[in-house]
Amino acid sequence: MSRDIDQVLSHHGEFPSPARYAALVDPMRSPRAAEAVAVAAFESAPRFMHELADAWRKRFASWQPAIDRAVGVAMFLDDDDGDACDEWRGARLGASVQDGRGRYELVAAIGRGSSGTVYRAVDRALSDCGAVAEVAVKVIPCAHAEIESRLREAGAARSIADAGVARVLDAGAVELQQLEAAQRAALGLNDAGIAIVTELIDGMPLYLWKATHPDRSPDDCVSLALRVQAALRACHAGGVAHGDLSPANILVDASGAPRVVDFGHASWSAATSVDDDGDAATGLPSQIVRDQRRLGAVLAWLVRDLEPTRARRRALDAAETIAKGLTPAHRARGSRRGLVVAAAALTVVCAWGAWTFVGRGSGASAAIDPIDLVFGVALDDAPELEAAVREVLADGSNGPIFKTRGLVLAASAQDEVAVLARKPALDDHDRAHILAAAILALATPDPWRAAPLAVMSVERISNDASGASDPASDPASGDRVARQVALAQVIADISRTQFGKAPAIEASRLAVQRSVTDCSAPGLIALLEQTANSRARGFIPRASARPRSG
Fold it and tell me: Residue 298 and residue 156: Cα distance in Å, rounded?
């Protein structure tokens, strides 16, 4: 169970709730199994066990007895100090103080990141002057050759002084001779490593904040993201790009204020100028763009499972704006300009007495975005997946995104479907991800994988009670659902032509032509011919190796 929790966290950034296991575990019939699920979750986040328990009791009434028992079990396990993995406890790192040992004494593990583990530590130098002073110490195992570059990047973050950023106080290479052999092994320091010391933030990681705040509003999420954006802009103005922004590296304190932490992957370059909007011109354009896109993705992730209201739609618009490095004020100015242009275009169209589509490419079908027609905003939380699906629908498997990342994205999408298949009910986003997985599978060397995914997509659209968005908030939702079903059926037909006979292939061609018109998806024609050609070559399906999706 703990392994499943770790996988969901690493692949999807979500802390799983009892809803994930509802189809497998009935807390009334199998109370011990339900208790095991809750214990594993609480052991993964012991500092926030009570917050999780309170949130789950409100949402999952039938799980309450199991949750109550699990809290007691988890507290008992937490009191057991005989765990060998805690050999690091008491290790002292940093410059030596009067007793000849390191300045920072590790007392508790408080989080794990992509590069190392963060510990609560006592600053013995400051504590000797009065009250106990605590800090956060991140220990990052690395090779000797990497120490200098990692310290230079961490040191650059010391210049950032913003309320939204955890201040870097100290950094240095770990002196292995300060540690006992068991402590070195427990810290993962087989070769070398560095320690980055920051102020200790009393807050919970954003992925846990999301799990304990199911009643959060879209506006709350936007407000939080804008405060993080302001903190990142302060970093960028100082020539520092975070480089690893994620829900694990944003802490939310008791007042709801976010703080950006963990600059272990930071990049540094001297800022040369700052424009009127506060944007820095540095030698880190690509790293800054990465930070912006990551923050936009974080906001989209925060509102993904909320009700499809107008407020949620505005939040997704804000996520797109933030990903471009803009603020809502920028977006508003751009929107007003867009309205003026749209009004002028409308005048021209009406003067001709007919409505026409105007956009990219030549011809109506090339001008209409297939993502908007088929998915609406349901893939906004996964911009890379959305871009790949748009490319496949437009060009088949010949586009630059699919050629470089297509197989990895297809494998990742199929892994996500395996998780979604166990959920008792899916929302618009979940169903969109299943259909997206089918589309990408059709463009891989194993197009036969697309058929079961397409069939699953149709079944879940038909069976789920919330099969479409609220028509009041999205008037086009009914049309999109119809297009999704039709597209899924066409995908299944194309997938099956790999084993079909000539008449069936010809029938599929007719269906594809209709889909090209209805969904603006000319890439399906290329995929049909590609699949039919594999049949002509005597293709035999195999259990081919799938690329890693991580």
Answer: 25
Model confidence at 334, in pLDDT bands (50, 70, 90)?
Answer: very low
At residue 358, φ and ψ (nearest 5 deg) are: -120, 125
Query: In which residue are the tokens 């040191």 written?
Result: 155
- CA-CA distance, 269 to 284, in Å (whole number)? 6
- CA separation, residue 375 to residues 100, 123, 359, 468, 470 (Å): 63, 53, 19, 11, 14
Question: Alpha-carbon distance 349 to 343, whole Å?
Answer: 10
The partner residues of 120 in beta bridges, in order of sequence, read 108, 136
Distance CA(235)–CA(256), nearest Å, equals 21
Q: 241: helix, coil or strand?
A: strand
Q: Using the CB atoms, write b or e for 495-532: b if 16+ within 10 Å.
A: bbbbebeeeebeebbebbeebbebbbbbbbbbbbbbbb
pTM of the model: 0.56
Distance, CA of 196 to CA of 156 (rounded, Å): 12
The rounded distance, in Å, linking the Cα atoms of 407 and 398 is: 13
Alpha-carbon distance 392 to 395, whole Å?
A: 5
Alpha helices in 146-217 (DSSP H): 147-156, 181-187, 206-212
CA-closest candidate to residue 252, choices 277, 294, 296, 216: 216
With helix as H, strand as E and coil as C, how does 291-358 read? HHHHHHHHHHHHHCCCCCCHHHHHHHHHHHHHHCCCCHHHHHHHHHHHHHHHHHHHHHHHHHCCCCCC
Confidence label for 277 from pLDDT (cuts 50, 70 and 90): low
Q: List, for residues 68-82, the tens digit of each pLDDT value.
A: 888 888 777 655 444
pLDDT value, residue 345: 35
